[in-house]
TrEMBL record:
UniProt-recorded Gene Ontology molecular function terms: adenine deaminase activity
Residues that hold Zn(2+) according to the record: H14, H16, H194, D275
Keywords, ordered alphabetically: Hydrolase, Metal-binding, Nucleotide metabolism, Zinc
Reactions mediated catalytically: adenine + H2O + H(+) = hypoxanthine + NH4(+)
Cofactor: Zn(2+)
Functional summary from the UniProt entry: Catalyzes the hydrolytic deamination of adenine to hypoxanthine. Plays an important role in the purine salvage pathway and in nitrogen catabolism.
Name of the protein: Adenine deaminase
Note describing how the cofactor binds: Binds 1 zinc ion per subunit.
Similarity comment: Belongs to the metallo-dependent hydrolases superfamily. Adenosine and AMP deaminases family. Adenine deaminase type 2 subfamily.
Organism this protein belongs to: Sinobacterium norvegicum
Length: 324
C-alpha cells in the first residue's frame, strides 16, 4: 500500500514553501548568510518542534524564515521541495508563500517571487512538473498591510495564480480582509483562505461569502455546522485538509479521530496535503500513509483523494480531464 501511494500521481494544494525549509538547509543558509540561529545543531532544531497549538508553531516557523535573504536562498528552498515532489509522484503543486515574513525584514518582494518562480520554471522544464504560486496575507497583521503587500506584488501578477490568508486564525476573521480580496479578484486572481482550522465554522462562511474563495484551506471544523457541510457538498467546494499538521498542532487528539474520510464518504471534496512538511514530520505521502495506518484507508479511498486533488486544483479543465 505504501508503494502504491508513492507511485500514485498526485497534486498538492496546501504547502507553505517556508514550511518546507528543513533544519539542514536552515543551518546551511544561516552559515552562508551569517545569521545567528538560537540553536546549535540540526538535532536541537528538530527537538524544538513540539507544538501545542498553531501559535506555538508559528513563533518558531517565522524565526526559521529569517535565514532566507537572497534570491538563491528562495530558489534552493523551493527546489528542495520540488525534488521531493518528484520522488513522491507529486506532479502538480500549488504553493503558498508569505511575502510579509520577508518584506518586514527589508527583503524585496521581487527577490522572494523571483527565487521561488525560477525553481518552479526549472522543475517544469527539467521534469514537466506543473505548479502555481499563491500569495498569502498574514492575518495577524492589518488589512492595510495586506493591501500594501498586494500593491507591491502586482508587478509580478503574471507569476501568481491567487491570494490566500494564513497565520494566527483566532481573533482574525476573514471579514477583516474583504477589501483586499475584492481588489485581488478584480485583478483576476483566484482566492483561497485558511478557515476552520482552529477558528469556528463561521469563519468558513465568511471566507465563502465575503472573500469569495474557490477553496477552503483546512476547514475541518465545518463538521460543527450541518448546514455548512451540506453547502460544501452541494457546491463541491474543496477543502485542502492537512492530517499530519492537524495532529502536530493538536487540532485533533489522535489521527484515528481525524474526520477527513468521514467527510469524503459524505461527498465533501476533500484533499490531503502536507502544510509545513519540514515541521510536521512528513511530506505528502506521509499524509496519505498516516490515513492508511490510523484510519484503515483503502486503496480506493487513496485514489479518490488523488482524483480530488486534481479536481480541486486550479489547472485548466482540459488538463483536469486527463486525470479522471
Ligand atoms: N495555519 C495558519 N497559518 C500557517 C499554517 C497553518 O497551518 N502553516 C503556515 N502558516
Ligand atoms: Zn496552512
Amino acid at each position: 500500500m505504501h508503494s502504491f501511494i508513492n507511485n500514485l500521481p498526485k497534486a498538492e494544494l496546501h504547502i507553505h514553501i517556508e514550511g518546507s525549509l528543513e533544519p539542514e538547509l536552515m543551518f546551511q543558509l544561516a552559515q552562508r548568510n551569517q545569521i545567528e540561529l538560537p540553536f546549535n545543531s540540526v538535532e536541537e532544531i528538530r527537538s524544538a518542534y513540539n507544538f501545542s497549538n498553531l501559535q506555538t508553531f508559528l513563533d518558531i516557523y517565522y524565526q526559521g524564515a529569517n535565514v532566507l535573504q537572497h534570491e538563491q536562498d528562495f530558489y534552493d528552498m523551493t527546489m528542495a521541495y520540488l525534488l521531493r515532489c518528484k520522488e513522491e509522484s507529486v506532479i502538480h503543486s500549488e504553493l503558498f508563500f508569505d511575502p510579509q515574513t520577508h518584506t518586514d525584514r527589508g527583503i524585496e518582494i521581487g527577490t522572494v517571487i523571483s527565487g521561488i518562480d525560477r525553481a518552479l520554471q526549472d522543475a517544469k522544464t527539467q521534469w514537466g512538473m506543473s505548479s502555481g504560486l499563491i500569495l498569502c496575507f498574514l492575518r495577524h497583521l492589518s488589512a492595510d498591510a495586506a493591501m500594501d503587500t498586494l500593491e507591491q506584488a502586482l508587478p509580478y501578477k503574471d507569476k501568481l495564480i491567487g491570494v490566500g490568508l494564513d497565520s494566527s486564525e483566532l481573533g482574525h476573521p476573514p471579514e477583516k480582509f474583504t477589501a483586499v480580496f475584492e481588489r485581488a479578484l478584480a485583478e483576476g486572481l483566484l482566492t483561497v483562505a485558511h478557515a476552520g482550522e482552529e477558528g469556528p465554522a463561521d469563519y468558513i462562511w465568511q471566507a465563502l461569502d465575503l472573500l469569495k474563495v474557490s477553496r477552503i484551506d483546512h476547514g475541518v471544523r465545518c463538521i460543527e455546522d450541518e448546514t455548512l457541510v451540506q453547502r460544501l457538498i452541494d457546491e463541491q467546494i474543496p477543502l485542502t485538509v492537512c492530517p499530519q499538521s492537524n495532529l502536530k498542532l493538536c487540532v485533533v487528539d489522535a489521527m484515528s479521530q481525524h474526520n477527513i474520510l468521514q467527510l469524503m464518504d459524505r461527498g465533501v471534496l476533500v484533499t490531503t496535503n502536507s502544510d509545513d512538511p519540514a515541521y510536521f514530520g512528513g511530506y505528502l505521502n506521509k499524509n496519505y500513509t498516516a490515513l492508511v495506518d490510523s484510519l484503515d484507508m483503502t486503496s480506493e479511498q487513496a485514489v479518490q483523494l488523488a482524483r480530488n486533488s486534481f479536481a480541486a486544483s486550479f489547472v485548466s479543465d482540459d488538463i483536469k480531464a486527463d486525470f479522471n
